[in-house]
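Teaching note: in complex prediction, the entire set of molecules is handled at once rather than each chain in isolation. The prompt given to students was simply: 'Predict the structure of this complex.' The entities are:
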Amino acid sequence: MADFLLVAASFVLATVAVGLVRILRGPDKADRIMAAQLLGTGGIATLLLLAQATSVPAAVDVALILALLAVFISVAFVKKGVIRSQMEGA
Amino acid sequence: MSLALDALTFLAVAAGGFFFLAGTVGLLRFPDTLSRLHALTKADNLGLGLIVLGLLFQMEDPFAALKLVAVWLLTLLAGGAVTQLIAHAALGGRSAGVTT
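The expected output is the structure of the full assembly:
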């Protein structure tokens, strides 16, 4: 079972890494932040699978922190846009 | 019993991996920002949800299992809220759902 979970973890990480091409291609800033969001979720899934496959329960805590940080990225991105539009409006 | 649990884990984790693949393909292939956002949320919610579900069958400690569910719920909650915000930002401050 551990082998299968390791394979699944590498598979998820590989697909998410391919998704990062969207950061290069854009075209919109929102598209780029979406690829980062997918990397966050994929990273969480990979860490959870690794925690079970290698019997390192602490990796679940790392996944929890990654879940929190992924939110902060997107909130910072949206907040930046809001502040700019307020400055333009003033 | 253990074999049945392993089979369930196999099925759920494989399905979760499929949704991550679908999310990536959608993110790369879909034509506009909002449909890409749609593909992304499928990977976020279903992909991670199925992988967590698959791992739950392997858990011996109920608290560790609860923690996995907590990770998924946090992602679900954050994903739902953040996706709305990104869609709003992508539309340039116009409200989502109203096309003129």
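Point out the following to students. Residues 16 and 33 of chain B are 23 Å apart (CA to CA). Residues 2-90 of chain B form one domain.
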